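Methods, example record. To illustrate the input and output format used throughout this study, we show the complete record for Response regulator. The sequence lines were provided to the predictor; the line carrying structure tokens was produced by it.
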Amino acid sequence: MLTGTCLAWAVSLALVKSGQTTVLHGREMEAQTDMEPGAIRRVLVVDDSRLQRRILSSSLKKWGFEVIEAESGEEAMEICARAMPDLVLSDWVMPGMSGVDFCEAFRQLNSDRYCYFILLTSKSEKNEVAQGLDAGADDFLIKPVSSDELRARISAGDRVIGMQRELSAKNEVIEQALDDLKRAHDAIDKDLIQARKIQESLVPDFSQDFGSSRISLLLKPCGHIGGDLVGMFSPGPNRVGFYSIDVSGHGITSAMMTARLGGYLSSRYFDQNVAMEKRFNKFFALRQPQDVAETLNSRLIADTGIEEYFTMVYAIMDLRSGMLRMVQAGHPHPLLLRRDGTAEFIGEGGVPIGLLPGVPFTQVEVQMEVGDRLLLYSDGFTECRLANGEMLEPEGLLALVNECNPEQGGQEFLDDLFWRLTQVMSPEHGLEDDVSATFFEFNGP
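The corresponding predicted structure is encoded as:
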């Protein structure tokens, strides 16, 4: 004999097949037309009652779905392990594995496709609904199931599955784009590492003695490559030239400009060095700093398409007399450290090179004594952001210099100075600009 629930399903099914309209339990039931499948196409019906499965399957097939039946949670798990359905309709109360247990085990299956899970139950208490949601169910239907309500819940699940799969498709596109971007980034990163090696080759020696005197260099780009350049050269005994350059901007364009300037001020190929001139076809001599600045400015202005400019301090030194001749072109004021412990910033500022055509550059002379030292530095020092948000400024640089061990010289001094800079800089912002310096120690011829 059919139970009341089963009888209701049987009558409903018969009415749907005959196309008639009647009243059942006080609700109007009309014959259903086909339901166009969307994201949900394959439905798994799980119920220990064969009649219940048949009733559900009949409606689902009429609506255009592919239907698979299972009489237990264990059998359903085997089916799902082989091929994941789009929708599961599972009874709550079943012998062996209950619907809740099946739902929980089902969610543990590894699948790249999400499946909508509806529990069929006569339970309506909130704690029991919460138990089903915790197990992974998406929706509930109270038995006996209304055909209209079933269709409505499937439509809701279809929208969820559709949006999920659309999102998954977009995520795949994004992941592919990220993979492509990573490969491109790795290739660029590899090129930048090689570019840094080339840029470092522009400064073959970071410390060199010229008689009793010495010049040391510091070059710390804030990225793989930078826009700062330091260097030195000597055409013969007791004559030496050295410089500190900071190209505008950052990155590849600035680094390419430093490579060009490295050729203009080559320490190896004097015939290409604009700071030298050949005399009597026998030897090279240092040109005056003012003339060098004007030559570099005219060359940069003449190069169409180049928007970069650079600041510079270029100095030549007569190691016999101690006379220093220097030109300052928009670069920070050099710091002169006297042997008696006093210090002063020297220079007259000036205009950056490559900014304006025909601009004059002023040359200054400074008499150095044995034991005096001169520090050329980029604004990566003075514009370094401190923990309090302010910049180091020239006064802060002088304080760092005074903290260094006075017995240190050369490369040790520059390394100590840079280390002290890293101790006071803002941890949040770090090194925001390239840091470079040229340190000249005058100890006589």
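Annotations derived from this record:
The chain has two domains: 39-169, 195-441.
The first strand starts at residue 22 and ends at 24.
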